[in-house]
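Thread: "does anyone have the structure for this chain?"

Original post by V.I.:
We have the sequence but no experimental structure in hand. Need at least a predicted one for the grant figures.
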Amino acid sequence: MTLFKSLLLGSAAGLVAVAGAQAADLPSKKAAPATYVKICDAYGAGFFYIPGSETCVKLGGYVRAEYQYVPATNQYSASTGALSQSKDVVSTAGYEIRGRIDVDARTPTAMGAARTFVRLRAANTSGVRNQSGADKGTFTNSDGATTGISIESAMVQWAGFTFGVAPENYAMMPSQIYNANPWAGFPNGMKQIAYTASLGGGISATVALEDRTDFGYNQTAFDKASTVANVVANVRMDQAWGFAAIHGLVGNNSLDRAKVDAGVGDKTYSSYSIGATVSFKLPMIAAGDQVWFTANYADGALGGLLSAGGLSTLASASAKRINGGVIRNDSNMVLVSGAGTAASPNVYDGTTGWNVAMAATHYWAAQWRSNFSAGYVEMTPPTSTVATTWGKGKVWEVAGSIIYSPAKDFDIGLEVQYASLKSSMQNPTAAFVAAGSPGLSVNNYTTKLRVERTF
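Reply from O.Q.:
Generated one for you, tokens below.
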């Protein structure tokens, strides 16, 4: 029995020794070291490296909730002078809820960073923020909710070049107010090929081919557009006190098809716009204070003055008008004479216009600021002897806002805007004159409440 116990204990000891030796040969079960996101400070705050690459990425965007009120106005027919839509059936309030996502990716190369930037905006709108304004039927109103996605930017930038949808290169004025401005602005970006050269001393120059159809007032008076792009250029000087810039665009409105068909040759009508913008920082008044001024002249290229539609739609984006009356939609080209025959071919000429405007920002305190803008726009169609069309139109506007920021990049703002429109008609119909030529002088106001959080 004693021998048996001795053998059993010896066997157990052997097994323990063998098991210990085998365990020493097994791989370790310690946790793998954690992989942390690495900060990329080469392009400013907020960038981080994509693990395993040299590409730095920054994510951002905003959420905006906006509520608008506009007193209703009557609409009248430009041909008969009759009431075409009563103010009693037009929406006076509306909602717009937006969400935007930004993705900025940059990779170093021997010729500077290769940048890819995407900015997508989705919006859900209803009420006055959704009705089309000029094209609703008599005494009807369609203001249901609509959701849409817009591409504000989708571009590749490298070695001074920009390809894709990017901010427009003519407009230099900011858009602090909540309604449309009395100057050109392009919130949905512009399809383009552009090159920017840094000349030193804060001076830069840009030349671009921009999609003609992305500009406002791109109606063609003929059957075929002669070009698909406008040539846009600017020279800008940025200094500690602010900036100054001159900017211009040149394009062809269209081809005179009537003259071609009549066998009397063809003619292209060149269009252009030229302007200047300057801004001054005013730290002597308050930190962050700034003022901007712009002046522009256009012949045919009315997109250099306003970004959309017509003088009636000045005070609200996407044709959600502030002013009613006879809804004015100016054309860049106007039929001035002719009967469209070989003996009397149609002749067209371009509409001219100009504007002056200013905007300012003032900080009352770190969390309180105001924006103010004022502007005047005038458009003068050519004299026509054969068509009922618009004569000179002029509009002026003023707007002001107060904004409270309880935290960084969090704004709660209230704005009021007033606009006054004076129009005239060339060769009005007898019915329009007999009706008293109504709706040519209108004015109105609109107000908005906006809550916006940027990240």
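V.I.: this helps a lot. The longest strand covers residues 93-107.
O.Q.: and The domain at 38-454 is CATH 2.40.160.10 (Porin).
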